[in-house]
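Notes to self after the Tuesday call (sharing in case useful).
The group wants a holo model before anyone commits to mutagenesis around the pocket. I volunteered. Ligand is C2E. Logging inputs and output together so the record is complete.
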Amino acid sequence: MRSTVLLRHSGLAGFLSALALAVYWFLGDLALLALAVGLPVLVLVAVWSWPWPGSKAASDQVIDRLEAALHDRSEGPRQTGCFVVQFDDPSRICDRHGRTLQSEVLAACIGRIRGAMRPGDRLFPLEDGSLVVVLAPSQRLDLEGMVRIAGRMQLVVQQPMVVGDISVQLSCCIGFCHARQINAETGRALLEAAQIAADEAMRHRPGAIRAYTDDLALIRATRDRLRSGFAEAIDAGQIRAHFQPQVSTDSGEVSGMEALARWHHPDRGVLAPGDFLPALEGTDLMELLGREMLNQSLSALAEWNRAGLAVPAVSVNLSPQDLRDPQLPDRLAWALDAHGLPPGRLTIEVLESVVAGVDDDIIRRNLDRIALMGCGVDLDDFGTGNASITSIRQFSLQRLKIDRSFVRGVDYIRDQQKLVTAILALAEQLGLESLAEGVETQAEHAMLAQLGCGHVQGYVISKPLPPEEVASWLRQHRERLPRALRIEMRAR
Ligand code: C2E
Ligand code: CA
Ligand code: CA
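Result:
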């Protein structure tokens, strides 16, 4: 391929002679010598770094290959299929000196997958870091066969490998589409279908394999629409922070409000994060959401201050992207300053799964700085993210938020009580406060208070409220408080 690329440039020889003449004429024979030595080196480097910008993109080469496979009738009607392999964040694999080993790891994986392919199958690395495998047309290819091939590719990728000075085990997700599944007429349609399946597999990572289905295409179309409309929705004020109160189990007083995003969609009504966050994940839009929620939360808090309403703090959910932004602590400090609020009035929520990942220095340093500034740091969905005690201790945290799955039925299910008791003992040992979320009944609330959980949040106290309803809820809560406390004291 590389030599054909060169030959295609038929004007090259004429251009080179003109260049040599001009160099000799204007700069002398030394410059000509430098050109004679330097130019071949430059050409070699350029050819080696193929594809060049402006040359045929890798995805177009895939499409050409698929077209050829789809329309190959040389040995009667045959079938083909397309796989898209996506790796689980290889950029985070580093050697002992912190140097990323991404390209070495990918090169090793390419070699392994090639070794698992049959003659005639073709592999293409795409610009986004994924790999595409196009199967050679075959009479016997069916869906089951494709599942087996995907499994084989995954197996060879996931075998441990030694790269640089470390041993690495990489996982990958694979999506695929058999040409018959979409009655594929074009290579582009087949590639897109396999990419849709790969995206779905990535949503179930690590190590998922997914085949294309028509439902997935529908989900993708909805996701694309939400994604493309999100920035405009922010400008139009459709993305709004709703607030869910958190109360102290000791005093019953409000100890904070968690900001939860809602999209007031003009056609689809109020959308919860589950309806639109998946469309934003992995894009810059996540950061846009984080900034908007921070700004709205602090504005609301400043407003409640002015109205004389006692809300000690707001909690904002931050995405892994937000947490990896080295400017995050500065951004938080500026936002607090702009609203005239001290850092102690802001808590950030970090998912347990985020601190459970491989060592992440930026996140750790960010959390250290944020905690040092005086903001609270809550570990969200605790108990679901598989963080080790060592990793929890490495991060500056203030409170564990016990996930709803441990809270459900805690008043009558003995095993739930044991689990919550164990989590509370852990929190105490680590010097952390505790909050139970998703508390739905008075009985759960009373039991959590009895077990020693510091704070609760859930529908039994209030659903998330639009900001304009918070003031009246706070007033009602204040009025209900002495009665509620008496009931709770009786329950203890
Ligand atoms: P989360 O942070 O765990 O938030 C608690 C979720 O539980 C919220 O769902 C809340 O409405 C719901 N909930 C509260 N009390 C109860 C209860 O008693 N019973 C039940 N069944 N559910 C309860 P929501 O608002 O749908 O948010 C879902 C998730 O979306 C949040 O889970 C959070 O991880 C994410 N999220 C929400 N807002 C944001 C945001 O602004 N940024 C980011 N990055 N993520 C957000
Ligand atoms: Ca949360
Ligand atoms: Ca949570």
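Two things stood out.
The radius of gyration is 29 Å.
Confidence is low (pLDDT under 50) at residues 1-15, 43-54.
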